[in-house]
Write a structure and sequence with these properties.
The complex is a heterodimer of chains A (336) and B (369). Chain A is mainly alpha-helical and 336 residues long. Chain A contains 13 helices and two strands. Chain B has 369 residues and is of the alpha/beta class. Chain B contains 14 helices and twelve strands. In chain B, the strands form two sheets. An eight-stranded mixed sheet of chain B has the order 6-7-8-3-9-10-12-11, sandwiched between helices. A four-stranded antiparallel sheet of chain B has the order 2-1-4-5. In chain B, helix 4 packs parallel to helix 7, helix 11 packs parallel to helix 13 and helix 13 packs across helix 14. Chain B is globular. Classes of the chains: A mainly alpha (336), B alpha/beta (369). Chains A and B meet through helix 9 and helix 10 of A and helix 2 and helix 4 of B.
């Protein structure tokens, strides 16, 4: 078990390395020089080729890519100094570069925005399971009934709506038309330390939109897995033992049906942690997703690179956790 | 295997405190499943009874209603998707229409069932011991976890699992096929049921293990003095295990009597077919197997008249179109003991000896003569 985790960590680390190379290459080989956005920002129309060269020279972009990638990696582990023409900035480890926009280390801002994204992710994921699993179980137990068919088709309809439209409509109806009182604080993320009520109020709408939309697919997964589990021979055995119906459904049926659901959940949770661009943008939550979207708009290339790398790390890490959890859920899977 | 000392001989009188008479009486049982193409009667007009210490064998092809009827005895059919009429009395209690809550207390307790393919029938995510303990605790709510575990180990030992106190913590996939079936049997017997229904308990096992499992079942039956229903399509199993045989075809009983009587004087061509299709190890290697031609009928549109007539090689011996038009009644056969058969043939025993027996066991014909 331990050996397996170490092995997976090593391979995960290799994947992260490859992803960081790919991200760096995209940054480097973009349609124009990576120094162009900062030159444009600071010089405007006066960003003439000579000045661009000066930026490139101070930022080291005139060196070969492997030298600069080496510096980038070194910055992650020990930190480094970055110069914009004549101004030199210190970037402490783990350094993911300086924002072109603020000249501040990207890592600082990433860390400061992490609580917002984690809050959105935890609340949304909680609703995925809280709504999705019980509804899925209920539908599976009433499989083929009118209620089941109505539920399945309405959820299919719901999940066919593009998410950004669904989130916008949720926002529109709950804040503008109904003026829902709980959500009066919507519009910014308020850290938990400012008081749980404020924190809750600021995130509630985002959770509702994310949770309701996401739970539809959990309902489908759970229903499908439950229908399959309930038709297994071991369910008949459980009934034949004289167990009460609830024990049969939950302890025997759901226990088996949860395995695929948990697998998908782990990966979904990883991508929620990587940043929920639509949710954060629509509900004005200053998280990593919103930030990366702004960075794309601003051509703040170091931020784009850093958020991309962060997403990749989150996904790789959640995959690792899923694999380990899987071996606890299904004893037939032996990790070695 | 543990040595089991028979506490009472088979057929001896039942356990103290139990009401007299058969432990299970099934009368005119019909199980119907409504489907989109109309109702399907998987079992029709089935009647039989089993006494304590006795074994009833139910034989028939797939889809003949063997398992469906036994699952009805345990109330395992979903009330919404099935319709059960007739009467099933377990130890005097009528269970058709019994409330789920009261029925549940009989299941796994008074009547228990062991299934074929124990790998699928045991929950893959729970330890063997936990599954046995669960079966015990549900009917012994006051038993502590430790008691239940001790009981589980004791039962595993009883069915011949080596090192039961360590194997009790294994998962089903860590057991061999034979051991899984033993564990299944241990689970079936953990509450000392009066009636054990074994649904093809040896089908998924290889031949040597089959024999061990059947021996084990017999030993345990003697020890617990329980009634056993064994469902199989293997007449060899019947010959070894059963006191009585019920042959089913297309949801109906077609022949019913003591094992000795049915196997030596079968009076229904379907039973003849089953007997003929047993491979004979002493026959010459060039000899062909004798199959029953055709396929079991669709229960959506059962044949008119006798359900077996499309496959029957003897329908010409019945005058007129009787076999095509009229379902034969279950009537007393010409045998010496009570022997029921559902066939229009007037002198089946003579036909069997003249035409069937020489084909399948020529040496036996000489003996009988």
């Amino acid at each position: 078990m331990f050996a397996y985790i170490v092995k997976r960590l090593i391979s995960g680390f290799l994947v992260v390395t490859l992803v960081s190379m790919a991200v760096f290459a995209l940054f480097w080989y973009g349609p124009s020089s990576p120094a162009k956005p900062i030159c444009d920002r600071e010089q405007g129309v006066r960003c003439i080729p000579e000045r661009l060269v000066a930026y490139e020279k101070s930022l080291g972009y005139d060196n070969p890519i492997y030298t600069e990638y080496g510096k980038f990696v070194k910055g992650i582990f020990v930190g480094r100094e970055i110069a914009f023409r004549t101004d030199v900035y210190q970037c402490d480890a783990p350094c993911l570069g300086l924002s072109y926009n603020t000249k501040q280390p990207v890592t600082h801002e990433l860390v400061s925005r992490l609580p917002a994204t984690i809050s959105v992710a935890v609340g949304g994921a909680f609703l995925y399971l809280l709504l999705g699993v019980p509804i899925g179980v209920a539908a599976a137990r009433r499989r083929g009934s009118v209620a089941d068919k109505a539920l399945v088709s309405s959820f299919l309809f719901l999940s066919s709506i593009p998410y950004y439209l669904f989130a916008l409509l949720t926002w529109l109806y709950l804040t503008v038309l109904w003026e829902a009182p709980v959500v009066s604080d919507v519009g910014y993320f308020s850290p938990f330390s400012d008081g749980p009520l404020k924190w809750f109020g600021g995130l509630f709408l985002a959770w509702v939109a994310l949770g309701i939309f996401g739970c539809t697919q959990y309902t489908r997964y759970t229903r499908g897995a439950m229908v399959e589990a309930l038709s297994e021979d071991y369910i008949r055995t459980a009934k034949a033992k004289g167990l009460p119906a609830r024990t049969v459904v939950y302890r025997h049926g759901l226990r088996a049906a949860l395995v695929p659901v948990v697998t998908i959940f782990g990966i979904d949770f990883g991508s929620l942690l990587a940043g929920t661009i639509f949710t954060e943008r629509i509900f004005e939550i200053q998280g990593i997703g919103y930030w990366s979207l702004q960075a794309v708009g601003n051509k703040d290339l170091p931020v784009v690179a850093a958020t991309t790398l962060f997403s990749a790390v989150m996904l790789i890490f959640s995959n690792l956790i899923v694999d380990v959890v899987y071996s606890f859920l299904d004893p037939r899977v032996r990790l070695s | 295997m543990t040595s089991t000392v028979p506490s009472s001989t088979p057929g001896s009188d039942s356990t103290i405190g139990r009401t007299e008479g058969p432990i299970l009486v099934v009368e005119d049982l019909t199980v119907t499943f409504p489907t989109e193409d109309g109702p399907v009667s998987a079992v029709q007009g089935l009647s039989y009874s089993v006494e304590m210490g006795k074994t009833l064998g139910i034989v028939g092809e797939s889809g003949s209603g063997k398992s469906v009827s036994s699952m009805a005895v345990l109330g395992l059919h979903d009330a919404k998707s099935s319709q059960i009429t007739g009467s099933i009395r377990i130890d005097g209690t009528e269970v058709v229409g019994l409330s789920e809550n009261r029925f549940r207390k009989l299941r796994g307790n008074t009547v228990s069932m062991i299934f074929q393919d124990a790998l699928a029938a045991l929950h893959p995510f729970y330890k063997i011991g936990a599954q046995l303990a669960e079966a015990y605790q549900v009917h012994h709510p006051n038993a502590s976890d430790r008691d239940a575990r001790r009981k589980a180990i004791e039962m595993l030992d009883r069915v011949g699992i080596p090192q039961p106190d360590s194997r009790v913590d294994d998962f089903p996939h860590q057991f061999s096929g034979g051991m899984r079936q033993r564990a299944m049997i241990a689970m079936g017997l953990i509450n000392d049921p009066s009636l054990l229904i074994a649904d093809e308990p040896t089908t998924a096992l290889d031949v040597t293990v089959q024999a061990q499992i059947l021996d084990l079942l017999q030993d345990l039956q003697r020890e617990f003095n329980s009634a056993v229903i064994i469902i199989t399509h293997d007449l060899g199993v019947i010959a070894e295990m059963a006191d009585d045989v019920l042959v089913m075809y297309a949801g109906r009983c077609v022949e019913y009597g003591t094992t000795k009587e049915i196997l030596t004087h079968p009076e229904m061509p379907y039973t003849w077919g089953l007997l003929s299709s047993i491979p004979d190890i002493s026959a010459s290697t060039d000899a062909r197997l004798i199959p029953i031609p055709g396929n079991p009928p669709s229960l959506f549109s059962p044949p008119t008249g006798c359900a077996f007539h499309p496959r029957c090689g003897f329908k010409d011996k019945v005058p007129g179109r009787l076999c095509y038009d009229k379902m034969p009644e279950l009537a007393t056969g010409s045998g010496r003991v009570e022997h029921l058969k559902r066939c229009h043939l007037a002198n089946p025993d003579a036909i069997y000896r003249a035409e069937v027996l020489p084909e399948i066991a020529p040496d036996l014909v000489e003996e009988i003569r």
